[in-house]
Amino acid sequence: MPVWRGWDKIKYQAQLDPAFAEEVTSIPGGEKLFDCIQCGTCSGLCPLSPYMDFTPRKIIAMIRAGFKGEVLSSHTCWLCASCYACTVECPKGVKITEIMYATKRLAIREGVSPKRFAIPVLAEEFFRDVESNGRNSEGRLIMKLYLKTNPFKALKQATLGLRLWSQGRLGIRSDSIKRKSELKTLLKSLEKERMVRSRRETAHAGEAK
Amino acid sequence: MNYLYFPGCSLKGTGRAYEDSILSVFKGLQLPLEELDDWNCCGATSYMAISEMKAFALSARNLALAEKQAHSRENFGLVTPCAACYLVLVKTQKYLQEFPDIGDKIKTALKSANLEYGGKVRVRHPLDVLANDFGTEKLASFVKKPLKGLKVACYYGCQIVRPYAEFDDQHNPTTMNRIMHALGARTIDWALKTRCCGGSLTGTIQEVGMRLSYILLREASRLGADVVATACPLCQFNLECYQKQMSREFEDAISIPVVYFSQLVGFAMGLPAKELGMQRLFVPFKFNPAAESVKGGIHVHS
Amino acid sequence: MSTPENKTNGTPRIGVYVCHCGINIAAKVNVAECVEFARSLPYVTVAREYKFICSDPGQELIQQDIRDGKIDRVVVASCSPLMHEATFRKATLAGGQNPFFFQMANIREHVSWVTFDKEMATLKAKALIAGAVMRVARHKPLEKTRVPVNPDVLIVGGGIAGIHAALTIADSGKKVYLVEKEPTIGGHMAKFDKTFPTLDCAACILTPKMSAVRSHPNIILWSYSEVSQVDGYVGNFKVKVRRKPRYVDEELCVGCYECIEKCIFKKAKFEDEFNIGLSQRKPIYIPFPQATPLVALIDPETCTEFRTGKCKKTCVDACERKAIDFQQKEEIKEIDVGAIILATGFKIFDATRIPRYGYGKYPNVFTSLEIERLVNASGPTGGEVRLKDGGKPNSVGIIHCVGSRDINTNRYCSRLCCMASLKLAHLIKERTGAEVYNFYIDIRAAGKGYEEFYDKLLKEGVHFIRGRVAEVSDWTMTADEEGKLVIRAEDTLIGVVRRIPVDMVVLAVGLEPSADADNIRRMFNISCSYEGWFLERHPKLAPVSTFTDGISLAGACQGPKDIPDSVAQAGAAAAEALALIDKGFVELEPNTAFVQDEFCSGCCTCVALCPYSAISFSADNNRASVNGALCKGCGTCVAACPSGALQQNLFTDEQIFEEIRGVMNYV
Question: Do C291 and C368 belong to one domain?
Answer without folding.
Answer: no
